[in-house]
User: Fold these one by one.
Assistant:
Number 1:
Amino acid sequence: MTRIVFFDIDGTLRLDGAFPDTAQQAIRLLKENNITPVIATGRCEHEVKAWREELDIEWALTCNGAHIGQNGRTMPGSIAFDPDVIDRWLRIADGRHTFLLYGAERMYATRLDCPHLAQARQEIGGFDDPYPAKAGDSLPPIYQVIVFCDETAERLYSEGHPEPLYVHRWREWAIDINPHDVNKAAGVLKLLDLLDIPVAESAAFGDGKNDMEMITAVGTGIAMGNSCPELLACAPHTTLRIEEHGILHGVKHLILGHPLPDEKTTTGSPR
């Protein structure tokens, strides 16, 4: 029996800047069956607030699992960076690379006219103008950073730490960095512990490389049909593509156990 389901947003719940009606229907179906839906995303709490409220979802794991929020409130188990690490990075990056800093309630950027920042906003959307930030500023807890840099420069920020950081490259020119031992799976396990729900009674949907740990950690891990090859290779289950109403299909047939309408249909079955 599944009691909680975690959903990535981009490429999973959200398509072309909107939530398909069938995805919203799937969330309602879960709630009607006393199953808790949870957002699990690399975005920050500030970015997903309006979407969480639109979907009437209480819980969100943001910043790739570093921040646990209940109706926007920071909950126990959230993990922020050491402020000294952030300050050191900003001093290294000064004049070379732009940082986007994710707090719970605000986003900050070291350069507002960065072409890569503009490109990210155009490609993924969903966030307002960040507040300016620089080395030496007093900042709130920062749970994730995006560094706009190529693979060669990545080592300036990812190496030289007592414990390895979680680094996820999502464009040739951009990486997410999270504190040590933080990824979506870590956030999932902390929330399951907080809500006293066994891992076997959890499920998750995703489509990207940063969903791999989560999909393999839950009781029922489901990859969207449009997922990256790496996730499709490791996911225990698959559903249809997002544009083929894959969320509703997966919720009905893999979570709620409804029979497939056509016995010849195999997509969405365990692999």
Number 2:
Amino acid sequence: MAITPEMAKKWRARGVRILLQHDAGRAAGFPDAAYADVEFADAAAVLAQADLLACVLPPDDAALAQLRPGSVVVGQLRPHGASARIAQLVDARLTSFSLELLPRTTRAQAMDVLSSQAAVAGYRAMLIAAEASPKFFPMLTTAAGTIRPSKVLVIGAGVAGLQAIATARRLGAQTEGYDVRPETREQVESLGAKFLELGVSAAGSGGYARELSAEERAAQQQALAEHLKSIDVIVTTAAVPGRPAPKILSAAMVEGMKPGALIVDLAAEGGGNCELTQPGQRVEHAGVVILGPLNLPAGAPLHASEMYARNVFNFGELLLHDGALAPDFNDELVAKSCVSHAGEVRFTA
């Protein structure tokens, strides 16, 4: 949900009239009755009247066609590879901002939807892993003997990976974290996990790793394949917006894992970090189960919405000046997140 009751009050305090679609927030835990000083209407009326449309995912073609020229659309618009959608935004003379395009700077942190939703995804991915694994995560001492803790490896130590590591630790698993960026070691170890050292470094810029050379990838995969033989659960989180997810786990590496092992591929929407991942599907190969869950933040809709709605409001404040919508394109955050404006394409990636 792009506007929660808490954020609706903040929008109103800025002099903004709020018009919501009936029951838009009910599934996320926000019934209409939870909103104060807000108007409700059907979807068509909302679209016809909106000066600024706040959304979670891109509106469909029919919805975009109902917006008035000059209206502003803010949300996760997924512009990479969406030439038809961008063309429609331009043809309709809509001003649109995709929050995934915000630069990864300190000033942008309060509106960084990639980070807020990745935190939810990392948490949910590890819960899915704990439920799907045939083993207990923690060590248990029972009358039938002692059960050793599961060995869990999280690949990728970004926001999602760190949240997955923290969740695995809370569940009592013996946890390791791996990332080709050496600067993440301290973050992994601060959560009580062991940093897996494979002898390959790919420090990049903007918070992302650079692409590995063929020699570096071969060395990484050889060392990783040997280590995976003892792992019970792997959660992979390596992704860069707008690019296919890097292939880290090959079919041969999966075949070398022990029967009953589990892989949860959080990068499934980008094609997956595992060669065998099928987005949205459960795959079993050589006794190993590979899960490719999609839209993980939707599994914790209340808190995901609370964080997302704060991100949207914080960005929205950049667009409001003296009670009116007046985007300042001299502002780096506004300029770099803009997809379309005044009948022109502003997204150049």
Number 3:
Amino acid sequence: MKRTRMEKIAYPVVIAVLSLLCLSVIYPFLYMLAISLNEGADAAKGGVYIWPRSFTTINYEIVLGNEVIRHSYLITIGRTVLGTIGGLFVTLLAAYGLSYKKLPLRGTILGYILITMLFNGGLIPFYIQLNDLGLLNTFWVYIFPGLFSAWNMFVMLKFIQGIPEALIEAAELDGAGPVRALLQIVIPLSKPMLAALGLFTAVGHWNDWFAGSFFVTDQSLIPVQTFLQQLLSASDLSAVLGSNTNQEALARSSEMANITLMSIKMAVVMVSSIPILCIYPFLQKYFVKGVLIGSVKG
């Protein structure tokens, strides 16, 4: 189709604006990567922006060789996997049950859930509740409080209600019960929504530092983001090196002399952000469109 004169003028402008936006997002990532791969003392002189001037991997050897960081990484991976699977399971069951219009007290339950989205008891009552449940200073404080999200439930409920009733009715005529309808119809058709909600939930768990800072005092239970938050407020390298530093890296005294707190911080940031970024390409296809097109022909 032939473009108008205005469209010909607007097209390069839109491309330029979008390119600048992409650059503004990518540049900080490239800058941190360059600093993390550069000798700290050399990077402190300035002039390192998108490419390391004095390449080294000692920063990553220090970070990955630290026992505290490795353990916090395992805590983060564990809470992300269990929290995402558990959250999707609870959200799906709640939304599926409330999708039945004949469910007793359905309106009351939805109203109660809606109230929890608008109001909350505050941090102190929440802390007291976690203490009464025995969740403080345990791994499960990362899992149980976040299993149910009212927002995710309403999004999932709306999606399930959009599934053509003819599919459910056809399954019921074939003798399928609610569980079979859920497993064979609702879940297969809900894969795009489950993937989207799963990704948002996983990112939330991976990036959460708050719970580890306020609900956990045992350093062996802190996630990597809480460790990073502690590191960013540190004033020297002892927060990272300590007594668990990689001995092989320590032996390389000439390179260790060039380590700075900033270079270690950038390495920790990269180590904590790259894994979750790698998940996006595998789930991207589920954000394009659903799979309901053509499932019911008029």
Number 4:
Amino acid sequence: MLIHVKTDTVQDKPDNTKLWLFLFAVYIIWGSTYLGMKIATEVVPPFLLSAFRFLAAGTILGLISRGSERQWPTKQQVGSAAFVGLMLIGIGNSCTALAVHYMPSGLVALIVAAIPVWFVGFDWAFFSKQRPTIMTFTGILVGLVGLFLLFNPFGADHQSRPYPLWPIAVLAGGCACWALGSLSVSKLSMPAPMTSAALQMLTGSVFCFIVSSVMEPGAWNTLAHLSTRTISAYLYLVFIGSLVGFTSYSWLTRNAPPGLLSTYAYVNPVVALFLGWAIGHENLTSQALMACGIVIGGVVLMTLGKRKG
């Protein structure tokens, strides 16, 4: 998942080498964070992991922003960033961490890829009031069919499925909060981009610490069992996933054509599925691969429909 920021006007002629380098970084980095969360939550519970991850990343980014942006936010801007951080980081991203703890990381990435459904619905109902195009509706239906084929609870093999389905409901709620928080940005007075992202991360971190203290008894005791594998995954999530990934995406929002930038939504799950299979030893049946292709096709249609609308 990404940190949503206000975008500036796209430059007329961005550096093509830099453009594709940053786009490739977003493709790979955000696609790989699902496996990173999967590995890290093998030892540390999801909410405590998210709390430490975004505490570190938010602190580092806040220090960087002080030296580069030099703009102190108003109380209203701090409140706005805190709300967005609660929705995106505190609920949205931590629900993803919870889901990958119980489910294959590649399949979680695929569900998250369908997040445009929430964007379309909330935007139509509460924000632009613009009716989605026929292509967008078609994409939504195709994506939902693909997800049903992937997780069909009535299928003959549902009893032998090695993971529970209840995290899907949690993940759906997290995706809904992510979409609502992202859409709210345009209506709120926000700080400068890096300061805003730092405040969002720190707010989300505080929320995750609170939730962990209530829902994850004994979570702090797991820190005594950290392995090199766990620490490596955590450091990757902080420095590569949160900091490098955000920096790349932030530059792209100001310099890349929106249609090109939106392609990360259907490249990330492909990367996550491949890494989950190659490194995480996650199995994918032929039916699952077919369903994945249908879901990604639906996301493509939703993206194209929104662009034309």
